[in-house]
Amino acid sequence: MRVLVACEYSGRVRDAFRALGHDAMSCDLLPTEVAGPHYQGDVFDVIGDGWDLLIAHPPCTHLAVSGARWFKEKQQEQADALDFVRRLLDAPIPRIALENPVSVISSRIAKPSQVIQPWQFGHGETKATCLWLKGLPLLTPTDVVSGRENRVHRMPPGPNRWKERSRTFQGIASAMADQWGRV
Q1: What are phi and psi of 161, to 5 degrees?
Q2: What domain of life does the native source organism fall in (predicted)?
Q3: pLDDT band for position 64 (50/70/90)?
Q4: What is the domain range of residue 45?
């Protein structure tokens, strides 16, 4: 299966699919953190290249409800971010998963197909993650664990906080590859 992982610099989802034998490439404006097939640039440069599956992680900066207090000051940025999401969901790819935290996508475009948590996939943390799915089944939890803490939300301020918060949990990446790689 040919898999495009949009807006991913970490390579986690890409590498989970590659480990199972899929032809997967990540794409982001940033360089990849780990060696592997990666297109550094605009996802729409490569979105029409015959992919079977798109997993998109659009930036949540102007979408997540955690930043709602700033929405009034960034209406154009939010409109642009929502347009980006619509374009990803309308991509000419038969199977699409779009991932974002709880956000205005739910009220402005569509309700999510599913909301998952890291603790359902082997990580003792909470971070509600919404999935909008086209042509894909819901993800089935693989390893429900206790000891749930809100580590991601409580990360201290710093120049790389946004980067650390945006990484896909390995258990979720592996579940995506295992379950959606068989569709």
Answers
A1: -55, -45
A2: Bacteria
A3: confident
A4: 2-180
- Judged against a pLDDT cut of 70, whether residue 1 lies above it is answered with yes
If one counts the domains in the chain, the total is 1
Spatial distance between the Cα atoms of 2 and 125, rounded to a whole number of angstroms: 31
Measured from the Cβ of residue 29, the count of other Cβ atoms closer than 10 Å reads: 11
What integer is the mean pLDDT of 112-126? 95
- Which residue in this structure is represented by tokens 């943390």? 125
- Unique residue bearing structure tokens 């990484």: 167
Q: State how far Cα 20 lies from the chain centre.
A: 19
CATH at residue 30: 3.40.50.150
Mean pLDDT of 44-55: 98
Q: Sign of the CA dihedral 181, 92, 32, 124?
A: negative
In contact, 88 and 51? CB cutoff 8 Å: no
Return the pLDDT at 163.
56
d(CA 109, CA 104): 8
Q: Residue 76 contacts by C-beta under 8 Å, 6 or more apart in sequence?
A: none
